[in-house]
Design goal:
22 helices, transmembrane, 2 domains, mainly alpha, 71% helix, globular
Length: 495
Amino acid sequence: MLITLIRLQLLKRIRSSSFARSMAFGIVAIVIGSFLLAYLFLIGLVLNTLVKEVMGVSDAVLVINSSLLYFYLLELIYRYFIQRMPVISLGNFLHLPLSKSRIIHFLLGSSFVSPLNCIALLVFGPFAVLEILPLYGAVPAATWLLAVVLTSWSIHWFILWFKQRFEDSQTGLLFVSAVLFLSIVSSYFSFFDLGAFFEPVFTFALESPVPVFLLLTVGILSYFLCFAFYRQNAYLDELSTGDHLQFADRDLGFLSRFGLAGEVANLEWKLIMRHKKSRTYLTLCLVFLLYGLIFYGNPSYQVESGFSKVYIFVGTFITGIFMIQYGQLFLSWNSPAFDFYVHQRDGLRALVHGKYLLFASISLLCFILSVPYVYFGWHVLLIHLATFLFNLGVTMHLVIYLALWKPKPMDLNKGSMFNFEGVGISQVLVILPLLVAPYAVFLPFSYWFNDYVGLAALGTAGTFGLLVFRRISSLMTDRVIQMKYEIASAFRQEL
C-alpha cells in the first residue's frame, strides 16, 4: 500500500498541467535550499569558535546548553510559517476502501521528509564532534546530539498538530514570539535567564542517556497526538468547514464609511483573513515590528551627531512593510475574479481605491504599534513619523504603479511559504525603487544641512503627496482601467 500511495503522488505531480513550471521552481528551491543548508553547516563548524571568541567564554558547551531554548523558540516560529502538512490529499482517499490509519501514517511520514528536520543536526552536529567529543568522549557527544535532535523532531510533530488545531488563530504564534522576545530582552539586560532553567536537561545528557529516553518518549507522544487528531478529524466536512472561519467573516466597520471603495476594502480584508498566504503576510507585519530592536539598541549604529542613515531604511520597513509585501502582488490577489471587476460599473475604480484604504489603514496601525520605540530616543519617533508620511504620500503610489508591470495570476490555495504564485522578476524588482526613494529625498538635504533637515524633507514630501493624493490616485486608477484588457488576458493564462 505504501508503494501505491507514493506512486499516486508521483503521478499526480507528473500529470499536472503546471508540471514544467513546478519543476523549474522546484529546481530553484533545491539550489537555494542547498546553499542555506550549507551555510548552516558552516555555522556549525565554527560555532564553538564563535562562542569562545565573540562571547569571551571558555565553556562553550555550557553557553550552548543555556541557549538551546531560544533556538527551539525560534524553530517554533519558522516552522509555523514554512512547515505544512499535505492535508488536502486526504480528500482523494477517504472515499476509497483504504485504512484511514495507514493514510494518516503515510501523510505524517511524508511530511517528515523535509530539510527543516536537518537544521538541528547540521548546526549542532559539528559542534558535538569538534567541542564535546574531545572533552567528554564519543558516548556523551552522541547522547547530547540525540537529545538536541529529538527535541527538534518533537517540535515537528507538535507544529503539525498546532497548525491544524488552531489554523486560523494567531494567538499561539504571538504568544511564542512574545516569550522569545521577552526572554531575549530579559537575558540581555540580566533580569531573568529563561534558558538557564533548561540548561541542566542537556547537561545531564552528557552524563546519562536518561534525557534521550525521556525526549524520545516526548517525540513519540507528540507523534501520536498529531496522529490521533488527524485521524479523528479526517472527514471531508471537517476539512472544508469549521467554526474557526467565523473570524474571517468579520469586517472592519470603519471602512464602510468610504462608500463602495470601503466595501471593497472590507472584502479584501476578509480575503486576507481566509487565505494562508495573505494571512501570513499580515502576521509578518507584526513580527517585523520587532525589526528595529536589531538596530536602535546596537552600539555599532550610534553616531556622534544626528542618527545613522540606516534608521531611514528601518523606519520605512516597519511602517510600510505590508504595502510593500502585499502590494507587490497588487492585482494578482484578485486574478481569479478580475473579470468581475472589469464588467462592473466603477468596479476597477472601487478595487484600486479599496486597496488604497487597506494599505493606509494597516500602515497607520503599524506606525501606532511602533510608537514604543521612542524608548530609544525621540529621534526614532520622528523617523517613524517621517517615513510613515512618505510611505502614504509617495511609496504607496510607487507600489501600485510598479506592480502593474506584467502582473501574473495567482492561485490562493497553494500554500503560504515558498509559493511563487503571482511572482515574477518584475515583482521582485519592485522592492528596489521602494527602498531607494526615501534616500533620494533624505540624503541630499542631510548632506547639505543635517539629518533632521533631511528628515523634515522626507516628511514634507510625504505630506505633499497626501495633499495631492486624490489626483495621483485617480491617475493610478486610470492607468489600471487603460490596461484592464491586457491584465485580464494575463490573468486568464492557465495556472
